[in-house]
Amino acid sequence: MRGTRGYLAPEWIMSSAISDKADVYSYGLVLLEIVRGRKNSSIQTWSHSTKTSSSEGNAPSSSPSVLEHRLIYFPLFALEMHQQRRYLELADPRLEGRVTSEEVEKLVRIALCCVHEDPALRPSMAHVVGMLEGGLSLGEPRSESLNFLRFYAQRFIEESRMEGSTELKDLGLYPDINATSNSDAGVSYNPMSSQQLSGPR
Prior knowledge:
Number of helices: 7
Subcellular location: Membrane
Region (Disordered): 179-201
Domain Protein kinase: 1-136
CATH architecture: Orthogonal Bundle
CATH topology: Transferase(Phosphotransferase), domain 1
Membrane topology: Single-pass membrane protein
GO molecular function, one term: ATP binding
Oligomer: single chain
Number of strands: 5
Strand content: 5-15%
């Protein structure tokens, strides 16, 4: 399975029976990459400065810029934005003004249905094609079968820390899976612009 990291269905890891639904899972991840225009997991770096107040009552001054590293795990972010119905934030920035929220919603909902943890909940590829072509109604992603994405994201961040250089030891995750969320999936959304999310190309 070399070269397929991040695309394997959960049943491969759990040594469960493998069916054609494993390919549906992989297709869902590829579909998310098409929506975003880049890989589903990547490390983004940006700098920010913190303001410090003077003990002498002077105006606050800015400290030197601090580099912050975050792992962007897009399937988790896509789930969060789906629950908030903020679909345009998921689209490739190069398509700004050329796609509608409804078009992005269609692809994201299909993709999330494809990556359900339970293979029985994933559509067949014939059903996927029907939804893409508009002949079948869109499925509704089930949050309870997508919570495993948080575990996958944590694994990515742990592996990145082990494989990365010293500056990645404090690598954080976006979205923050450890914070409290108002969504059903328990994923936290931290305000970040689409430019920060997409990063340099």
